[in-house]
Amino acid sequence: MSSPSHPTERRAIIDGCLAMNRLGINQGSSGNLSIRVGEGFLVTPTSLPYDEMTPDDVVEMGFDGTYVGARRPSSEWRFHRDILRARPDVNVVLHTHAVHATALAVHGRGIPSFHYMVALAGGDSIRCAPYATFGTQDLSDHALAALDGRLACLLANHGMIVLGGSVKAALALAVEVETLARQYLLAQQLGEPVILPPDEIARVAEKMRRMKYGQPLDDRDAPEDTARPRG
Ligand code: 13P
């Protein structure tokens, strides 16, 4: 049999899935991950434990919903397809059942701007998409709407979706969203926390953009508004 296409991306999918379980933001064979390739995308197969997954198991799909490979694609292939098709700004779609994000989502609650780091997801809140049965077009439509202008959303009674330019970026944001959900749940034990106003979140977002906040610098050319390296 000839070797499968996109070996680097197939490996990145498996490593990304193993990482999300190791990081404690997903469990078992819940969750799924896709990467844009060529005229379509690669996506995890349905219901296969990540520690058993080989590069051949990763499924290649077209935006027309057809697939090639021995395995069936994730039951959530529709939202992976619809998000990657609608959002040329992202290359990776990551879905997890992270415990604290899901605890909020089962109440239909998103994450408001109780903490400035909410701005990392692209707005002044992380919305919660309404419930729809897993794998349905309705769920995909709700998710796409909740992600409008954002890189993350919760899914009611289900979990979260995070978008990124790379698997690394998506994983980092997923950890951040799960941390925010945990902080928000804890903070609520003392009552409703202080919510930062939209103009402050806009200021934070602009500062994050200028500082390339959360992105490692690969040279000594520090962006505006950061301390300068000595010498
Ligand atoms: P799959 O194994 O089909 O990807 O389903 C996992 C899941 O989390 C469904 O939302």
From TrEMBL:
Protein name (Swiss-Prot/TrEMBL)? Class II aldolase
Provide this UniProt record's keywords sorted from A to Z: Lyase, Metal-binding
Query: Pfam families this protein is in?
Result: Aldolase_II
Q: Where is the Class II aldolase/adducin N-terminal domain?
A: 11-185
SMART domains named in the record: Aldolase_II
Q: Where is this region: Disordered?
A: 212-231
Output compositional bias ranges, type Basic and acidic residues.
Answer: 217-231
Q: Which GO terms describe its biological process?
A: pentose catabolic process
Which residues are listed as membrane-spanning? none
SUPFAM superfamilies named in the record: AraD/HMP-PK domain-like
Q: Does the keyword Lyase apply?
A: yes
Q: Which organism is it from?
A: Azospirillum griseum
GO cellular component term, pick one: cytosol
Gene Ontology molecular function terms on file: aldehyde-lyase activity; metal ion binding
